[in-house]
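Record 1 of the preview.
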Amino acid sequence: MDDSVRTLPWPTYDKGNVFVDDEDLDAPRQALANRLYFRYDYRAYDDTETGRFEAALRSYFGVPHALAVSSGTAAIALGLMSLELEPGSLVACPGFTFAATPSAIMLAGCRPLLIECDHNLHFDVADLERKMSPAVRAIVVVHMRGFASDMPAILAVANKWKIPVVEDAVPSLGVVAGGKHTGTFGDAGAFSTQSDKSLNTGEGGFLVCHDATQFAKAVVLSGAYEGRFKRHFAGSPPEICDLDYPLFSFRMDEIRAALAHAEMARLPRRLEILRSHYDYAVEQIADLERISVRQPVIPGSYLGDSLIFRLPHDSHDQVVQVAAALRSEGVDARALGSANDPNVRCFWNWRFLFRGKSPAEIRALLPATTQHLSHAIDIPMSPTLTRADCDDLIRAIRKVMQRRASSHSELAPRSADVVETAEAK
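->
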């Protein structure tokens, strides 16, 4: 007899559990019926679907410029390309991020310089400072798994070295830290509207920035040829020549823009649901001593679409066992650092950066990040979760951890407490 906590599949976007309302579909249906799928046609730009979506983004984020594009990866690359960095420049980025981050840096003609993460899996500013040199020409910050990075500290380093910052806010659309949206602290902010993001168009993304000239360059690079970049400016556009820049065809189409714009009306509700369920789950497991839940850099500066906790007293193999036990209880759980998981959020699986090196050799390049990820478990929390789903999650975690606590043979040596104490400092 199966005594698992739940038998229904754990709700995730790839199983069809998406936060899209029937009313959200009216706008893309109308865009299809209009048969005007190209953003640069005879219409005034403010009358296009992309134009309206970008206007809504400017209002929501409080920024002067927004550009709808084909993906979050394209948005990161455009943020860097529009800075006109020298080819081959080093660009700092964290070792815990989706593979699209270093890929976008390479797409922009630059080289990633990997930075450690701390025990809460945030961008390690101390390691950034250690690795800074005149060869580092930009920083790409990632608000990974919906948690804001320490932007004041990172910007202080960038200002000291007089280099720009591009925010990979792809995982954090809607997160506010210190009264500001992630993606609006640096020179540019990149977002995604891929299926598991706060706005869901299947594929897509957008770029926000403050400087008009940088924005104009990004628009041209995205594929606004023959003077079409000027349509993005109500007044006089910056004096650039669009023939000076290549065209990468990173445009968003009218149908996706219509869907994204429609979904923005329910974005506050989606964010409220994510935060409510996350806070509830964290509160209910707070008494489990052997679990260390990821902490934000500023209270409340997280999305809530991913529950990450570490088991600092357990070996890596034991962490993998806990993740497997949670899955057997019906909850999707991933041991982030598992050697048998081709998880592209872990830097050692970015083999395109390390030709000829083994995963073990690559792991040794960022030992702290390797250690922290080896103790971490990640559970997705969809906005379609119900409170009953959250109760299942809580019961599963408590059941697995209590089972482990009752078996002394499975517990890690108490000397591991020393490691945790050192990390806390």
